Amino acid sequence: MTPDASPQAAYGARLRRLREERGWSQVELGAQVEYSGTHISQVENGRKFPTLRFSRRVDAALGTGEAFEREWREMTQASLLEGFPEYVEHEGRAAELRLFDIGIVPGLLQTPEYARCLADSKVRRGAITPEQADELVAFLAERQATLERPHPPTVMVVMDESCIRRRVGGRGTMGAQLDQLLKFADLPNTVLQVAPFEIGERRPLYLPVYLLTQPDMTVIAYEESQTRGHLERDSKAVWPLLTAYHQLQTEALSHSASVAMIREVRKDYL
Hints:
The chain has 270 residues and is α/β, with parallel strands linked by helices. The chain folds into two domains: 3-77, Orthogonal Bundle (434 Repressor (Amino-terminal Domain)), CATH 1.10.260; 84-269, Endonuclease, Chain A, CATH 3.30.870. It is 51% helix and 13% strand. It contains twelve helices and six strands. The protein has helices at residues 7-21, 26-33, 37-44, 52-62, 67-77, 84-91, 112-124, 130-146, 162-165, 171-185, 235-251, 255-266; strands at 96-101, 154-160, 190-195, 209-213, 219-224, 229-232. It has a six-stranded mixed beta sheet, with helices on both faces. Helix 2 (26-33) packs across helix 3, helix 7 runs antiparallel to helix 8 and helix 10 (171-185) packs antiparallel against helix 12 (255-266). The chain is globular.
Protein backbone atom coordinates (compact mmCIF):
# COMPACT_ATOMS: atom_id res chain seq x y z
CA MET A 1 0.00 0.00 0.00
CA THR A 2 1.20 3.54 -0.74
CA PRO A 3 1.55 5.62 2.45
CA ASP A 4 -0.67 8.39 1.08
CA ALA A 5 -3.56 6.03 0.32
CA SER A 6 -5.03 6.53 3.79
CA PRO A 7 -3.97 7.31 7.38
CA GLN A 8 -4.06 3.56 8.06
CA ALA A 9 -1.70 2.95 5.14
CA ALA A 10 0.66 5.66 6.42
CA TYR A 11 0.65 4.04 9.86
CA GLY A 12 1.51 0.65 8.37
CA ALA A 13 4.22 2.05 6.11
CA ARG A 14 5.87 3.87 8.99
CA LEU A 15 5.76 0.75 11.14
CA ARG A 16 7.43 -1.26 8.40
CA ARG A 17 10.10 1.38 7.77
CA LEU A 18 11.08 1.67 11.43
CA ARG A 19 11.08 -2.09 11.87
CA GLU A 20 13.32 -2.62 8.84
CA GLU A 21 15.67 0.18 9.96
CA ARG A 22 16.31 -1.86 13.09
CA GLY A 23 16.83 -5.04 11.10
CA TRP A 24 13.92 -6.81 12.77
CA SER A 25 11.65 -9.32 11.14
CA GLN A 26 7.90 -9.16 11.65
CA VAL A 27 8.17 -12.14 13.98
CA GLU A 28 10.90 -10.44 16.04
CA LEU A 29 8.88 -7.24 16.44
CA GLY A 30 5.80 -9.32 17.21
CA ALA A 31 7.63 -11.10 20.02
CA GLN A 32 8.56 -7.77 21.60
CA VAL A 33 5.02 -6.39 21.53
CA GLU A 34 3.32 -9.75 22.27
CA TYR A 35 1.59 -10.05 18.92
CA SER A 36 2.16 -12.58 16.16
CA GLY A 37 4.28 -11.87 13.10
CA THR A 38 1.12 -12.34 11.06
CA HIS A 39 -0.57 -9.57 13.04
CA ILE A 40 2.38 -7.24 12.37
CA SER A 41 2.15 -8.07 8.66
CA GLN A 42 -1.58 -7.34 8.53
CA VAL A 43 -1.13 -3.95 10.22
CA GLU A 44 1.74 -3.03 7.92
CA ASN A 45 -0.31 -3.98 4.85
CA GLY A 46 -3.43 -2.16 6.06
CA ARG A 47 -5.50 -5.32 6.41
CA LYS A 48 -5.91 -4.94 10.18
CA PHE A 49 -6.65 -1.70 11.99
CA PRO A 50 -4.22 -1.04 14.88
CA THR A 51 -5.54 -0.73 18.42
CA LEU A 52 -4.52 1.58 21.23
CA ARG A 53 -2.86 -1.31 23.10
CA PHE A 54 -0.92 -2.31 19.98
CA SER A 55 0.16 1.29 19.31
CA ARG A 56 1.45 1.79 22.85
CA ARG A 57 3.44 -1.43 22.73
CA VAL A 58 4.95 -0.52 19.38
CA ASP A 59 5.95 2.89 20.74
CA ALA A 60 7.68 1.19 23.68
CA ALA A 61 9.47 -1.37 21.49
CA LEU A 62 10.63 1.13 18.86
CA GLY A 63 11.36 3.97 21.28
CA THR A 64 9.05 6.35 19.44
CA GLY A 65 7.55 8.03 22.50
CA GLU A 66 3.82 8.33 21.81
CA ALA A 67 4.08 8.71 18.03
CA PHE A 68 2.07 5.63 17.07
CA GLU A 69 -0.46 6.29 19.82
CA ARG A 70 -0.98 9.81 18.42
CA GLU A 71 -1.43 8.41 14.91
CA TRP A 72 -3.98 5.94 16.24
CA ARG A 73 -5.91 8.72 17.97
CA GLU A 74 -5.89 10.89 14.84
CA MET A 75 -7.19 8.01 12.71
CA THR A 76 -9.88 7.11 15.20
CA GLN A 77 -11.06 10.61 16.01
CA ALA A 78 -11.63 11.44 12.36
CA SER A 79 -14.79 9.30 12.37
CA LEU A 80 -16.09 10.32 15.81
CA LEU A 81 -18.49 13.06 16.80
CA GLU A 82 -17.13 16.30 18.22
CA GLY A 83 -16.47 15.98 21.94
CA PHE A 84 -16.52 12.18 22.01
CA PRO A 85 -12.74 11.53 21.95
CA GLU A 86 -12.33 13.74 25.02
CA TYR A 87 -15.21 11.93 26.71
CA VAL A 88 -13.52 8.57 26.10
CA GLU A 89 -10.36 9.77 27.86
CA HIS A 90 -12.45 10.30 31.01
CA GLU A 91 -14.48 7.12 30.48
CA GLY A 92 -11.41 4.92 30.84
CA ARG A 93 -10.64 6.39 34.28
CA ALA A 94 -14.16 6.76 35.67
CA ALA A 95 -15.13 5.23 39.00
CA GLU A 96 -18.80 5.07 38.00
CA LEU A 97 -20.64 5.30 34.68
CA ARG A 98 -24.31 6.11 34.18
CA LEU A 99 -25.48 5.56 30.61
CA PHE A 100 -28.77 6.22 28.84
CA ASP A 101 -29.41 5.31 25.22
CA ILE A 102 -32.33 5.24 22.81
CA GLY A 103 -32.78 3.03 19.78
CA ILE A 104 -29.51 1.10 19.93
CA VAL A 105 -27.67 -0.78 22.65
CA PRO A 106 -24.99 1.39 24.34
CA GLY A 107 -21.60 0.90 22.74
CA LEU A 108 -19.92 -0.52 25.83
CA LEU A 109 -22.46 -3.37 25.81
CA GLN A 110 -22.41 -4.13 22.07
CA THR A 111 -21.11 -7.36 20.60
CA PRO A 112 -18.58 -7.03 17.74
CA GLU A 113 -21.18 -8.30 15.26
CA TYR A 114 -23.82 -5.80 16.39
CA ALA A 115 -21.28 -2.96 16.21
CA ARG A 116 -20.20 -4.08 12.73
CA CYS A 117 -23.80 -4.05 11.48
CA LEU A 118 -24.22 -0.45 12.65
CA ALA A 119 -20.92 0.63 11.11
CA ASP A 120 -21.64 -1.10 7.80
CA SER A 121 -25.04 0.59 7.66
CA LYS A 122 -23.28 3.97 7.87
CA VAL A 123 -21.04 2.93 4.98
CA ARG A 124 -24.05 1.98 2.84
CA ARG A 125 -25.62 5.38 3.54
CA GLY A 126 -22.42 7.12 2.53
CA ALA A 127 -21.96 8.62 5.99
CA ILE A 128 -18.50 7.10 6.51
CA THR A 129 -15.92 5.17 4.49
CA PRO A 130 -15.24 1.43 4.90
CA GLU A 131 -11.93 2.37 6.53
CA GLN A 132 -13.72 4.58 9.04
CA ALA A 133 -16.12 1.73 9.77
CA ASP A 134 -13.14 -0.47 10.66
CA GLU A 135 -11.84 2.34 12.88
CA LEU A 136 -15.15 2.63 14.72
CA VAL A 137 -15.37 -1.09 15.44
CA ALA A 138 -11.74 -1.29 16.57
CA PHE A 139 -12.13 1.81 18.72
CA LEU A 140 -15.19 0.34 20.44
CA ALA A 141 -13.23 -2.80 21.28
CA GLU A 142 -10.56 -0.61 22.88
CA ARG A 143 -13.17 1.22 24.96
CA GLN A 144 -14.65 -2.04 26.16
CA ALA A 145 -11.19 -3.36 27.07
CA THR A 146 -10.45 -0.39 29.33
CA LEU A 147 -13.33 -1.42 31.60
CA GLU A 148 -11.87 -4.89 32.11
CA ARG A 149 -9.45 -3.90 34.84
CA PRO A 150 -8.72 -5.32 38.31
CA HIS A 151 -11.09 -2.84 39.97
CA PRO A 152 -13.73 -2.13 37.33
CA PRO A 153 -16.09 0.82 37.64
CA THR A 154 -19.72 0.55 38.60
CA VAL A 155 -21.74 0.72 35.38
CA MET A 156 -25.41 1.69 35.53
CA VAL A 157 -27.33 1.51 32.27
CA VAL A 158 -30.86 2.59 31.44
CA MET A 159 -31.98 1.63 27.95
CA ASP A 160 -35.13 2.72 26.24
CA GLU A 161 -37.23 -0.34 25.37
CA SER A 162 -36.53 0.40 21.70
CA CYS A 163 -32.94 -0.75 22.26
CA ILE A 164 -34.03 -4.34 22.77
CA ARG A 165 -37.04 -4.31 20.43
CA ARG A 166 -35.30 -2.84 17.38
CA ARG A 167 -33.58 -5.62 15.46
CA VAL A 168 -30.05 -4.89 14.29
CA GLY A 169 -28.61 -7.42 11.87
CA GLY A 170 -30.01 -10.90 11.45
CA ARG A 171 -31.63 -13.15 14.02
CA GLY A 172 -28.28 -14.54 15.12
CA THR A 173 -26.72 -11.12 15.61
CA MET A 174 -29.63 -9.77 17.63
CA GLY A 175 -30.00 -12.96 19.64
CA ALA A 176 -26.31 -12.86 20.57
CA GLN A 177 -26.64 -9.20 21.53
CA LEU A 178 -29.49 -9.95 23.90
CA ASP A 179 -27.41 -12.75 25.41
CA GLN A 180 -24.61 -10.23 25.91
CA LEU A 181 -26.99 -7.93 27.78
CA LEU A 182 -27.98 -10.78 30.08
CA LYS A 183 -24.31 -11.54 30.78
CA PHE A 184 -23.68 -7.87 31.52
CA ALA A 185 -26.62 -7.78 33.93
CA ASP A 186 -25.16 -10.73 35.83
CA LEU A 187 -21.90 -8.93 36.65
CA PRO A 188 -21.44 -7.78 40.26
CA ASN A 189 -20.59 -4.18 39.30
CA THR A 190 -23.54 -3.49 36.97
CA VAL A 191 -27.14 -2.33 37.08
CA LEU A 192 -29.25 -2.73 33.95
CA GLN A 193 -32.70 -1.18 33.58
CA VAL A 194 -35.15 -0.87 30.71
CA ALA A 195 -37.30 2.24 30.40
CA PRO A 196 -40.52 0.75 28.99
CA PHE A 197 -42.59 2.47 26.33
CA GLU A 198 -45.46 2.78 28.80
CA ILE A 199 -43.76 5.51 30.85
CA GLY A 200 -44.56 7.85 27.96
CA GLU A 201 -44.11 11.52 28.81
CA ARG A 202 -42.60 10.60 32.18
CA ARG A 203 -39.29 9.81 30.48
CA PRO A 204 -37.17 12.86 31.43
CA LEU A 205 -34.37 12.34 28.87
CA TYR A 206 -34.89 12.41 25.10
CA LEU A 207 -31.30 12.15 23.85
CA PRO A 208 -28.44 9.82 24.81
CA VAL A 209 -26.71 11.01 27.98
CA TYR A 210 -23.60 9.59 29.66
CA LEU A 211 -22.57 10.66 33.16
CA LEU A 212 -19.13 9.83 34.55
CA THR A 213 -18.10 10.00 38.19
CA GLN A 214 -14.35 10.61 38.26
CA PRO A 215 -11.94 9.22 40.91
CA ASP A 216 -12.09 12.58 42.71
CA MET A 217 -15.93 12.22 42.77
CA THR A 218 -16.57 15.06 40.32
CA VAL A 219 -19.20 14.31 37.68
CA ILE A 220 -18.99 15.17 33.99
CA ALA A 221 -21.66 14.69 31.35
CA TYR A 222 -21.68 13.90 27.66
CA GLU A 223 -24.74 14.59 25.50
CA GLU A 224 -25.12 13.57 21.89
CA SER A 225 -27.29 14.62 18.96
CA GLN A 226 -27.30 13.20 15.43
CA THR A 227 -24.37 15.33 14.28
CA ARG A 228 -22.35 16.33 17.33
CA GLY A 229 -21.55 15.60 20.94
CA HIS A 230 -20.86 17.90 23.85
CA LEU A 231 -18.81 17.29 26.98
CA GLU A 232 -19.98 19.26 30.00
CA ARG A 233 -17.97 19.83 33.19
CA ASP A 234 -19.81 22.78 34.72
CA SER A 235 -21.71 21.46 37.73
CA LYS A 236 -24.56 23.91 37.06
CA ALA A 237 -25.20 22.08 33.77
CA VAL A 238 -24.31 18.57 34.96
CA TRP A 239 -26.50 18.37 38.06
CA PRO A 240 -29.83 18.84 36.23
CA LEU A 241 -28.83 15.93 33.97
CA LEU A 242 -27.90 13.82 36.97
CA THR A 243 -31.25 14.65 38.58
CA ALA A 244 -33.07 13.68 35.37
CA TYR A 245 -31.13 10.40 35.28
CA HIS A 246 -32.19 9.58 38.83
CA GLN A 247 -35.80 10.36 37.91
CA LEU A 248 -35.47 8.08 34.89
CA GLN A 249 -34.21 5.26 37.10
CA THR A 250 -37.29 5.52 39.31
CA GLU A 251 -39.60 5.27 36.26
CA ALA A 252 -37.66 2.42 34.62
CA LEU A 253 -38.16 -1.25 35.37
CA SER A 254 -36.11 -2.74 38.18
CA HIS A 255 -32.95 -4.69 37.36
CA SER A 256 -34.70 -8.03 37.78
CA ALA A 257 -37.80 -6.96 35.84
CA SER A 258 -35.58 -5.62 33.04
CA VAL A 259 -33.72 -8.93 32.84
CA ALA A 260 -37.07 -10.72 32.64
CA MET A 261 -38.15 -8.49 29.75
CA ILE A 262 -34.91 -9.11 27.86
CA ARG A 263 -35.30 -12.87 28.37
CA GLU A 264 -38.83 -12.64 26.98
CA VAL A 265 -37.67 -10.71 23.90
CA ARG A 266 -34.83 -13.21 23.45
CA LYS A 267 -37.40 -15.97 22.85
CA ASP A 268 -38.23 -14.33 19.50
CA TYR A 269 -34.72 -15.20 18.29
CA LEU A 270 -34.55 -18.85 19.34
